Structure formats: C-alpha cells, structure tokens
Amino acid sequence: MTSVAMEIRKNVRSLSFRARTPTKSLKEAWAAWARRRWPTNCQANLERAFDLSPGRAHGVVWTGITLPTIEHIIDHPNGGLSVWIEVEAIRRGLELDAFFERIAAEEREAIADERRQFEAREARVVALEAMATARRRHARDDHRQGAVLARQADAEPGTGAAGLGRAEAVRPGGDLALYDNGED
Fold first, then answer.
1. How many Å apart are CA 69 and CA 130, to the nearest integer?
2. Three-state secondary structure call for residue 171
3. SS3 assignment, position 169
4. Which residues pair with 168 in a beta bridge?
5. Which of 38, 57, 51, 50 is nearest to 80 (CA)?
6. Which residue of 65, 71, 121, 137 is surrounded by the most CB atoms within 10 Å?
7. Alpha-carbon distance 81 to 67, whole Å?
C-alpha cells in the first residue's frame, strides 16, 4: 500500500488532468492519456519513457494499443498502478479526485455494512449468553425447589408434597424422581 501511494506521489504532475466525457473504449482512453501527458511530441516521449518501439508508441497514440503493450507499460518502472488508474479515470469520464472519492465511499459503505452485520451477531451472542445464564439460574432454583419437596415428602409421610399422593421432586443430581410417601 505504501509503495502505491509513493508511486502516485512521484507522478503528481501527470495526475492533474480532468476528464470531461467518458471515452468509448479502453484504446481511446490510452490514447487520451498519452496525449494529455505529452501534448507535444507524444509518440517520441512514449518511446523514451516506456522503452517502446516506434510502432508500439504509434499504436498507443492512435488507438491501436495491444494487450502486450498495455502490460509492458504497466510493468515498466515508469508505469505501474498510477498509469492504470489515470487511464481508468479517463475511460470512466471522471476527475481523478472524484475517482478516488468514489472508491473511498464504496469502501466506507462496505465497512459500515460489515459493522452492522458484526453488531447484529454481537447482539445474538449477548442474547444467547443471557439465555444460558437464565437457564442455569432457573435450573438451580428448580433443583432447590425439588429438594424442598423431597424433604416435605419425607417429613410428612401421610400428606405427601404439595398435597399429592406421590410427590415429584428433583433429586440433588438434577434428575426428576418420584418419591413415594407411602400412600398407594
């Protein structure tokens, strides 16, 4: 990321153009870029800057650029991402500042979407944790209530727990048991 920013800063003079109308093709965008970068003696400057043959440089200037020439310019030390970004801005009819602002806005929107999704997931986790805590608390209360019912059934053999013939209670291990109070 740092090398890209440094590369763009290195070619600041070439980034000051404004593209008013979008071009129709990538080849037209390359030609417009070359003519804007070198308004006079464009073909010769292209040859020197990117080590191009006269035929390849002619193709860039007169919308006859080929894929190998594009790759050669992008891979050249004087080319790179900054050149590609300039050409794409021309192709889309954007000012370069607007081009970067649009990309930044799209990234901000993507980050906001991810943040909303993360917050929703975080809320689900908090709700699940609260449910687990409540369930553990409820299970402890049930366990205590079961122990009380069991003691009542053992203490009062004739009545049973809660007035039933057989008292249902939770044993200390947590399982449901039927305690017989002696009545059948």
1. 63
2. coil
3. strand
4. 178
5. 50
6. 65
7. 16
- Give residue 134's identity as a one-letter amino acid code: A
Question: Is residue 4 within 8 Å of 81, Cβ to Cβ?
Answer: yes
> Distance between CA atoms of 47 and 41, rounded to whole angstroms?
10
Residue 143 DSSP code: H
CA triplet 94, 18, 42: central angle to 5 degrees? 115
Q: How far apart are CA 76 and CA 67, in angstroms?
A: 14
First to last CA, the chain: 83
Domains of the chain, by residue range, sit at 2-94, 105-180
pTM over 0.70: no
Q: Band of the pLDDT at 17, cuts 50, 70, 90?
A: very low
d(CA 32, CA 99): 17
* Residue 76 · residue 50 · CB < 8 Å: yes
**Two tokens, residue 109:** 């929107």
Residue 171 near residue 163, CB atoms below 8 Å: no
Q: Indicate if the alpha-carbon torsion angle 159, 164, 177, 184 is positive or negative.
A: positive
